[in-house]
Amino acid sequence: MNSVILIGRLARDPELSYTANTQTAMCRFTIAVDRPRRQGEDQGADFIRITVWGRQAETCDRYLSKGRQVAVMGRIQTGSYKNREGVTVYTTDVVADRVEFLGSGNGEGRRDGFASRDTFTGREPGFGGMTQDTGFSAPQEPFTGFEDMPDTFQAAEDDIPF
């Protein structure tokens, strides 16, 4: 099985390109993934190259920027090439099947010119013109909406229409 899940922050802005033959979008970026910290050691990070294809690549290019936190699910792919000096260079990349945008970035706004938060409502813009509330608030009193629920399942005699 070749499967990987990573959470990290973009080390630089993504780079979008298109294949020559099929004009398929390809986006590449690097994320910094924190290493586990051991007592007495400085926090380290691994810088992992990510490749995204198709429509998701265009979305990543449009909405991601340096410092933005993402979750990436995909597979590891290795390769090699010869550099200008003729030395073989080995590569390891993650080919992403899914990229989820986490957090609100680094506070500098989005690359498409819109702010990452609506200053009037305090909400993050969503897709399709919808907004979603990103604030967290804990209820003051515990939820008590289950008083009417029976202790056990009771089968109904009604006919189900499907």
Give the SSE order as H and E letters.
EEEEHEEEE
Give the oligomeric state of the chains in this entry, treating copies of one chain as homo and distinct chains as hetero.
single chain
Tell me the span between the first and last alpha carbons.
39 Å
Global Rg: 23 Å
Mean pLDDT: 76
Name some characteristics of this structure.
mainly beta, OB fold (Dihydrolipoamide Acetyltransferase, E2P), two-stranded antiparallel sheet, 1 helix
Kindly describe this structure:
By secondary structure, the protein is mainly beta. The chain has one domain (4-36, 43-123): Nucleic acid-binding proteins (OB fold (Dihydrolipoamide Acetyltransferase, E2P), Beta Barrel), CATH 2.40.50. The protein has one helix spanning 54-63, and strands at residues 4-10, 15-18, 25-34, 45-53, 69-82, 88-102, 124-125, 131-132. It has a five-stranded mixed β-barrel with strand order 1-3-4-6-5. A two-stranded antiparallel ribbon has the order 7-8. The radius of gyration is 23 Å and the shape is globular. The two termini are 39 Å apart. 13% of the residues are buried.
